[in-house]
Write the C-alpha cells for this entry.
Amino acid sequence: YIVDDDFMLVNRWLLDDADLSYLQTRSGLSIPLFEGLVAELRLDYDRVGFQIPGTHNTDTEWVFALGYRW
C-alpha cells in the first residue's frame, strides 16, 4: 500500500491452507531516505502449530532494515 508518493505500508500474510497451523505476518512502514535508499520498520509475527497450554509456539520480532528500491 502506498501512503503517498514515497511512503509505503508493508503488510504481508502467509497462512498454510492445508491445516491452518502456520501463520507468518510482516507489517510495517517503508520510508525513502535518498536516491533509492529506503528504511523499513516492521513487526514480524510467526505462529507454528496450535496453541497448547504451557508451550510457546509464537515468535515476535521488531525489524529495522535498510535496502534499495529500484
Observations:
- The chain has a mean pLDDT of 79.
- The two ends are 17 Å apart (CA to CA).
